[in-house]
Automatic annotation (TrEMBL):
<keyword id="KW-0949">S-adenosyl-L-methionine</keyword>
<dbReference type="GO" id="GO:0051075">
    <property type="term" value="F:S-adenosylmethionine:tRNA ribosyltransferase-isomerase activity"/>
</dbReference>
<keyword id="KW-0413">Isomerase</keyword>
<keyword id="KW-0963">Cytoplasm</keyword>
<dbReference type="Pfam" id="PF02547">
    <property type="entry name" value="Queuosine_synth"/>
</dbReference>
<dbReference type="InterPro" id="IPR003699">
    <property type="entry name" value="QueA"/>
</dbReference>
<dbReference type="InterPro" id="IPR042118">
    <property type="entry name" value="QueA_dom1"/>
</dbReference>
<keyword id="KW-0671">Queuosine biosynthesis</keyword>
<protein>
    <submittedName>
        <fullName>S-adenosylmethionine:tRNA ribosyltransferase-isomerase</fullName>
        <ecNumber>5.-.-.-</ecNumber>
    </submittedName>
</protein>
<keyword id="KW-0808">Transferase</keyword>
<dbReference type="InterPro" id="IPR042119">
    <property type="entry name" value="QueA_dom2"/>
</dbReference>
<dbReference type="InterPro" id="IPR036100">
    <property type="entry name" value="QueA_sf"/>
</dbReference>
<dbReference type="GO" id="GO:0008616">
    <property type="term" value="P:tRNA queuosine(34) biosynthetic process"/>
</dbReference>
């Protein structure tokens, strides 16, 4: 397929800058009105696509099965579509505070360093992106705190914006990581930060402590992601408890989501696009849970595009999930013959995104693009904090 087939007009106001929330107004001690935000992750909208019948549901239904216009399906309704013995596969990767701000030695020029991954614990080597890249050269020293104790030296250029840093911090590794991460902030995508209002005291928009919690799934466990597995952000503790009561099984895999998900595709022919590699692990416990559900003829639902990518990397020719510990650069776009999950949930994503392409491959190009056009028309929210699309195999 061609890149241009995944283009559509997305109004700026339909890009979600925060998780689905409600807002409360109160009067402070000075008599001034202030507004505070309360996240309601599982109350985001959820559209339901039935890929065999080629139908789309947006509204809840009455007792006679008729859609009730204006009463949109919400994410917390997802359990209405599943039964005891079905299995959800989650990505338990944990986002770390990857975005740091510092200064360059001698010039005090302000720089942004985005941590990608640790290359060597003992030598404190990290693969990073820097901005502005033209000012950061091999041999430069970068400072990240006022005391000057957290210092890094640039030792290699890897790409136009990529650098290898060696942190000059002599202490046990756990202490180093703790101190380094204490200086970082939530790695929200640039399209979110750049669209938020800037505070009067800031020269650039910063994420805050609340963002770190918002940009983390409640079941995050294995540290290593620089962007969240966004569909999982809709799950709350209450929803997970309801799953347990209903008897829906949980399987956890790990895929450390990278920035490659946001890279622009620069070729019209999708077969020529190369994805960045992401580290992933699927253990025996996850395989046992998923394969038992498949053997029993139960539904297996992948929660998010990262889960689909991981399971399609590790599925065998027999349709069963295999243990895996390595990397994947799998790029899924239509047409694609899926081997494992028969249901999936995804967010609504930006035009020309690889995530839209993977969703279209799973649900079918025509019906998924119809769902996207309906989402734009009806004011659904897009992006990491956006609304959800449930694709059912019925």
């Amino acid at each position: 397929m061609k890149l241009s087939q995944f283009d559509f007009k997305l109004p700026k106001e339909q890009v979600a800058l925060y998780p689905h929330s409600i807002y409360r107004e109160f009067e402070n001690e000075n008599g001034q009105k202030e507004t505070f935000r309360i996240s309601r992750r599982d109350e985001a909208r959820m559209m339901v696509l039935h890929r065999k019948s080629q139908t789309i549901d947006m509204y809840r239904k009455d007792e006679k099965g008729n859609p009730m216009e204006g009463q949109y399906i919400e994410f917390r309704d997802i359990l209405n579509y599943f039964e005891e013995g079905d299995t959800f596969i989650f990505n338990d990767t944990k986002v770390f505070p990857a975005r740091l701000y510092g200064t360059k030695e001698k010039t005090d020029a302000k720089i942004e360093v985005f941590l990608l991954r640790e290359l060597n614990e003992e030598m404190r080597l990290w693969d990073v992106l820097v901005e502005p890249a033209r000012k950061i050269r091999i041999g430069n020293k970068l400072f990240f705190d006022e005391s000057g104790t957290m210092v890094a030296e640039v030792i290699d250029n890897t790409t136009s914006r990529g650098r290898t840093l060696r942190f000059l911090y002599d202490c046990p590794h756990d202490e180093f990581k703790r101190e380094l991460f204490s200086l970082g902030e939530s790695p929200l995508p640039r399209y979110i930060l750049d669209s938020r209002p800037m505070r009067d005291t800031e020269e650039t928009v910063h994420a805050d402590a609340e963002d770190m919690a918002d940009f983390q799934t409640i079941y995050a466990k294995t540290e290593g992601a620089v962007t969240a597995p966004a569909t999982g952000l809709h799950f709350t503790r209450e929803l997970m408890k309801r799953m347990e009561i209903l008897g829906i099984n949980e399987a956890y895999i790990t895929l450390h989501c990278g920035l490659g998900n946001f890279n622009a595709i620069e070729v019209e022919d999708l077969t020529k696009h190369k994805m960045d590699s992401e580290q992933m692990v699927i253990d025996k416990e996850a395989c046992d849970v998923v394969n038992a559900a498949k053997a029993a003829g139960r539904r297996v639902c992948a929660i998010g595009t990262s889960v689909v990518k991981a399971t399609e990397t590790a599925v065998g020719t027999d349709g069963l999930l295999k243990e895996y510990d390595g990397w994947t650069n799998k790029f899924i776009f239509p047409p694609y013959d899926f081997g494992l999950a028969n249901n999936m949930v995804a967010n609504f994503y930006h035009p020309l995104s690889t995530l839209v392409m993977e969703t279209a491959a799973f649900g079918g190009y025509d019906i998924v693009m119809e769902a996207y056009h309906l989402a734009v028309e009806h004011g659904y929210m897009f992006g990491c904090f956006g609304d959800a699309l449930l694709i059912l195999d019925d």
